[in-house]
Design brief:
The protein is mainly α. It has a domain of about 100 residues: Leucine-rich Repeat Variant. The longest helix is centred in the N-terminal third of the chain and has 14 residues. The radius of gyration is 20 Å and the shape is elongated.
C-alpha cells in the first residue's frame, strides 16, 4: 500500500521503516517521501548520506541541497567530497555551494585542484565561486588551465573576486582557444588590454 492512503502518522511510520529496506530504490523513494512531508531528522539524513548504495547517497545530497542543514549535516556532506563515486563528490560540491558552507573551502579547494574527474573539479570550482572565499582565489585562477568546462566554470567563479590578479587572469582567458571560455569572459564585460 502506498503512503498517502492512510493518516499522516501512519505514512511517516511507513516511510521511516522503508529507509531500512534492503532495496536501494525503496530507500530512495522513502527519503523523497519524508522530504515532501518535511519530516527528515538529522539522524535519518546522516544514515542516507552514509548509505552503502551510491544512488541513496546521491539522492540524499540532491534532496539536502534544497534544505538549510545543521552544521552536523554540512560537515557530513563535506566528508563526502572524499567519496569513491565521482557523482557523489559532484553532488556534495553542489550542495556545499548551495549551503554557502565556508568550513568546506579547504576540502573544495582540494577537489578543485586534484580530483581525477573533471566533473568534480568543475562542481568544486562552482561551489568555491559561490562562496567567494579569498582562500579559493589561487585555486580558481589555476583552474583556467584545466579542461574547457572547468575553465568556463572558473570564469563564472572569478566574477565574485576583484583585484589585479583577477583582471590579469580574465584578460588571458579572453584569448582562450575555447570560444565558450572567451564568450564567458565577454559576458562578464572584461576586455583584455592590448598593451
Amino acid at each position: 500500500m502506498r503512503a498517502g492512503a492512510r493518516g499522516r502518522d501512519e505514512d511517516l511510520t511507513l516511510l521511516t521503516t522503508a529507509l531500512d529496506h534492503p532495496r536501494s530504490r525503496t530507500r530512495v523513494l522513502a527519503l523523497r517521501g519524508l522530504v515532501r512531508a518535511g519530516d527528515v531528522s538529522d539522524q535519518q539524513w546522516l544514515t542516507a548520506l552514509s548509505d552503502t548504495d551510491v544512488d541513496v547517497r546521491r539522492e540524499a545530497l540532491t534532496q539536502l541541497s534544497q534544505q538549510a542543514p545543521s552544521t552536523l549535516l554540512a560537515d557530513a556532506v563535506t566528508s563526502l567530497l572524499a567519496d569513491a563515486d565521482a557523482l557523489v563528490v559532484d553532488a556534495a560540491a553542489f550542495a556545499l555551494g548551495e549551503f554557502l558552507y565556508e568550513p568546506a573551502v579547504t576540502a573544495l579547494c582540494q577537489v578543485a585542484s586534484t580530483h581525477e574527474d573533471a566533473r568534480c573539479r568543475e562542481a568544486a570550482i562552482a561551489a568555491l565561486g559561490a562562496l567567494g572565499h579569498d582562500d579559493a582565489r589561487e585555486v580558481i585562477i589555476a583552474a583556467l588551465r584545466d579542461k574547457p568546462p572547468v575553465r568556463r566554470r572558473a570564469i563564472v567563479a572569478l566574477a565574485n573576486y576583484e583585484g589585479p590578479d583577477i583582471d590579469e587572469a580574465l584578460a588571458m582567458a579572453s584569448e582562450d582557444k575555447d570560444w565558450q571560455v572567451r564568450a564567458a569572459v565577454s559576458q562578464l564585460g572584461i576586455v583584455s588590454d592590448a598593451n
